[in-house]
UniProtKB/TrEMBL annotation:
PANTHER family: FE2OG DIOXYGENASE DOMAIN-CONTAINING PROTEIN, OXIDOREDUCTASE, 2OG-FE II OXYGENASE FAMILY PROTEIN. This is Fe2OG dioxygenase domain-containing protein. InterPro entries: IPNS-like_FE2OG_OXY, IPNS-like_sf, Oxoglu/Fe-dep_dioxygenase_dom. GO terms for molecular function: dioxygenase activity; metal ion binding. Keywords: Iron, Metal-binding, Oxidoreductase. It comes from the Eukaryota. Residues 55-155 form the Fe2OG dioxygenase domain. It holds the Pfam family 2OG-FeII_Oxy. The keyword Chaperone does not apply. Belongs to the iron/ascorbate-dependent oxidoreductase family.
């Protein structure tokens, strides 16, 4: 959807207008969140924006049909998001879980709430100050469940820009934990393990 949205006729007609509208709103929320995250890292509020974290976003629209035997399958396998940040809108069905201290914790739906997930690329540039969260979606006998994930990254715009741990966060006590990489190079690692393992480990120093 950003920075170069496809022509509207490429979207399903049922959600064409609302997606364009939602994209504008989610971009504004993203701006505020990246400002807060920049400040949390002790940086200038515009820092993450200035290095391109807000330059692109794409949508993953997900439809999970009701499943007659939910315990025999999964809605969405465990994974970390391959982006800087994800803003997720889930409906009231539930099933989303995050991994916390080796336990899967339910993220119950809350009307009007958005879920903000740190992605791998933000973990990389923050040198592990922010952690990308592992999550999954359980299959349910009720449904369908519908969710809309907005992934902030420029992976659809091939670029030679390299990302590594931000220099401002490094010191002799805090040496860089990752090598510099382009987004596409990191995505190749992600794809090579099908998102099933921690792709950041391929870029560790
Ligand atoms: C994703 C994701 C969760 C959901 O798209 O990366 O984790 O609730 N979606 O559908
Ligand atoms: Ni995800």
């Amino acid at each position: 959807m950003a920075p170069n949205p496809p022509p509207p006729k490429r979207y399903p007609s049922a959600c064409r207008e609302i997606l364009v509208e939602y994209s504008k709103h989610v971009q504004s929320i993203g701006e505020v969140i990246f400002e807060l995250l920049s400040e949390a890292l002790g940086l200038d509020p515009d820092h993450l924006k200035d290095i391109g974290c807000l330059e692109g976003h794409t949508f993953g629209c997900q439809y999970y049909p009701p499943c007659p035997e939910p315990e025999r399958t999964l809605g969405h396998v465990r994974h970390r998001d391959p982006d800087f940040l994800t803003i997720l809108l889930q409906d009231q069905i539930g099933g989303l879980q995050v991994l916390h201290q080796d336990h899967w914790i339910d993220v119950p739906p809350l009307e009007g709430a958005l879920i903000i997930n740190i992605g791998d690329l933000l973990q990389l540039i923050s040198n592990d100050k922010f952690r990308s969260v592992e999550h999954r979606v359980l299959a349910k006998s009720v449904g369908p469940r519908i969710s809309l994930a907005c992934l902030f990254s420029t992976h659809l715009e091939p670029s030679n820009r390299v990302y590594g741990p931000l220099k401002q966060l490094l010191s002799p006590q805090n040496p860089p934990l990752y090598e510099e990489t382009t987004i596409l190079n990191y995505l190749n690692s992600y794809k090579s393990v099908g998102g099933l393992e921690n792709a950041l480990s391929f870029h560790k120093l």
